[in-house]
Specification:
Number of strands: 0
Helix content: 40-55%
Protein name: DExH-box ATP-dependent RNA helicase DExH16 mitochondrial
GO molecular function: helicase activity
CATH class: Mainly Alpha
Strand content: under 5%
Keywords: ATP-binding, Helicase, Hydrolase, Nucleotide-binding
CATH topology: Methane Monooxygenase Hydroxylase, Chain G, domain 1
Structural class: mainly alpha
Radius of gyration: 15 Å
Number of domains: 1
CATH architecture: Up-down Bundle
Organism: Zea mays (Maize)
Number of helices: 5
Order of helices and strands: HHHHH
Amino acid sequence: MSPVDVSDDISAQGLVQFAENYARKGIVRLKEIFTPGTLQVPKTDNQLKELESVHKVLELYVWLSFRMDDSFPDREVAASQKSICSMLIEEYLERFGWQPQDRRKVLGGAQKLLQEYDVSQMNKYFQEVNPGPK
């Protein structure tokens, strides 16, 4: 069983994109559906949920890459983007009092990196899936 929450729209969209690319080409390049360098610390609860969904999709890519290495060759990119998502989520939680202040020491060195990423519009990360007949 794969680690995907099909009740989450973004996760389901990522899974569909992976499946469609795999069916068409036999290979799934992360850059075809995800744009690295567009993430930032969420400012709202909705942005947090979107970032959590992106994290789930990246986790799925990494999971699939361990099972079909040749077909999912961008494991390192996915893993690094997933780590960035985790740091951004932690930063958001810390800012709003959900994490202990000692965690700031761990995250402090990554502040400049975290400020370079944008989570404002999920369609920047994942291409729109056409649910219509083919």
